[in-house]
Amino acid sequence: MTEPGSDAWPPDPIGTARLVLRASEARDRAAFIELFASPEVGAHIGGARPRDVLERSVPEVPGRRWGFFVVELDGAMIGTITLDHRAAELADHLRPDAGETELGYLFLPEAWGFGYAAEACVAA
């Protein structure tokens, strides 16, 4: 993967057998709020966020940055994939002499258990 800013972002959508990875759009805002307000998701990311706070703070088009994909199934957002560069000085860096990319994902609970995360991570 190249450095942030060296590639045009967002890239063209990436399709898999069932999913589309694409840039976020205004139509995804409600799903972002649902994702971060979910107690099930919150259990893995330090706690769910209050819905009223999210309603006020989530931008009209959330997640517009390098390395960020919305995961779409049948025209609706079901999760996100992120690619981030890790600084060499961070703990648990596997190769301090080389850059590493960290892959992260979050999915709505109703999308759990279908292999969507694995499929989306391979595509990203």
From TrEMBL:
UniProt keyword terms in alphabetical order? Transferase
- Judging by the UniProt lineage, the source's domain of life is Bacteria
Xref: Pfam families:
Acetyltransf_3
Provide any one GO MF term from the record: acyltransferase activity, transferring groups other than amino-acyl groups
The record's InterPro entries line, in alphabetical order, gives: Acyl_CoA_acyltransferase (IPR016181), GNAT_dom (IPR000182), N-acetyltransferase (IPR051531)
N-acetyltransferase domain: from which residue to which, for each copy?
18-123
PANTHER family in the record = GNAT FAMILY, PUTATIVE (AFU_ORTHOLOGUE AFUA_3G00765)-RELATED-RELATED, N-ACETYLTRANSFERASE DOMAIN-CONTAINING PROTEIN
The protein in question is named: GNAT family N-acetyltransferase
Organism, as annotated: Streptomyces sp. SID7499
